[in-house]
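Appendix B, Record 12. Input sequence as logged:
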Amino acid sequence: MKKTQKIVWAVLTALAFTTQTSQAQSIADGTRYLEQEQYKNARKTFQELFEKAQTAENAYHLGHFYLKIEIPDSANIYFEKGIAADAKYPLNYVGRGTVKYIKKDKSGAKADFDEALNMSKRKNAEVMHRIGEAYITYDQKDPSAAIDILNGNKTNKQKGAKDLAPQDAEIALTLGDAFLERNDMNKIVDNNNDGGNAASNYQRAIGINPKLAKAYIKKGNIMVRARNYKKALEDYKKGIEADPTYSPAYRYTGELYAKYGMYKEASQYYEDYMKRSDGSVEGQYRYAQFLFQVNEYAKALSVLKNLDGKVNTPNYWRLRFYCAYETKDFANATKDQAKFWSLAPVEKVIPSDYEYTGRLSIATGGDTLKAIENLHKVTELDSTKTGLYRELYTMFYTARKYKGAAEEMKLFISKTKRPTANDYLSLGMAHYFDKDYVPADSAFATTNRLQETALGMFYRGRSSDRLDKDTKAGLAKPHWERFIEIADAKKDIEKIAEAYYGLARIAAAKNDLVKVEEFAKKSLEASPDYAPAKNMLEKIAELKKSEKKK
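Logged structural output:
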């Protein structure tokens, strides 16, 4: 009997062990799928696990999956179910706190994080790891808080996740991310070398697990930030060598080649990434993003249309709107734009949304004032986009709306660190043709001070001439003379003729008929068909005849 009991016990123990191993392996499989960006397989794995056994652990992993694909409301459902299943399983409190953090309920998030920490007596590295991850993954990032919980707070003598699990490569990577985030936010505390600390933690992860491709990718990302693309590419390729099955490495490599403008190589690597994809909605959307990046707008739009009905997020409609605009399908761009704006929270709107909206309005003959307002918002949000002012200047100038052109060029100049002579020339031209000669003359003066050019001097002559109504002051004289000196006799024929005629008019105001005739003749020498000079010489001839008769 005792022998039989021992056999039964051995079998039950083996079965229990097998079940636990299978369960752990299944969670590991789901996690691996998630790492590989195989979202369909990851969802299926975690969903099946939860359906088979609605434990707190399975609920957490399914909720964590939804966090990763940015559906926090669905994530929260499973975290709540996990808490209901086992109120003492701490990770679901971390998950629920993360959802609150995403929704900007910082106090509620901290309460849940503290609950998880107290429940685990600050001795659970995974709990601390996921709290640290939450602080740097979503909006309103707090990298210092992440570093405290991951690295430990030496002031308070509190251990961090790294202290509890020094050989956990994932914790090393997240700690590296936190340092890099703080470095990027320029919140360097106590003169810490946050960029260097990020790199050293990524390297530490490689030391723990040399086959961890993700660690090489993160090292490469630092190089991308430093614009050392060659070194970044080396790191990415090391990641592929370390683990050829790690699909995101191919995506990052493809995207980096795209930055280089090497679209053939970029496409090859991205195709390798898609071969390793499971055809998930998220994977296809990433592919559409890549196609947009390499200017394959029609292909991107085709991929996005295949997702119609499967996804309804602001990002999806944003990309459809952009692609439709780029393919000049303005009718659908207008529809997709409306859908995007109806779904996008204000805090998620980015400068390019205003830019495309403004451009679409202009392209379709919409509300010009609203279009300009949107394009101005772009420059307010992104200081690198001041070129939009110049584009608006060109639009107004071409339409002969010179007042609007002048306003845009003034804004461009005011937002530019070192305006050029050409910028002031453009401003002067807009003012000049708007018949606003005082600011035109000032702009042309600045043009020639920065860089003397024939065109700048010619228009300085014109604007000064318009300010000198009876020409008696001779305001334009030095500018006409200087223009004639530096003009190209072959290219500037009509302008040279006008300049000599201008000098003739100034001489006429002073009753110097000798100079009038001299300059009028030189005007015709430059351009024999220049009518004003011809008329002037004819009048002089008539005047001479009438004097002879007397």
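The domain at 452-550 is CATH 1.25.40 (Serine Threonine Protein Phosphatase 5, Tetratricopeptide repeat).
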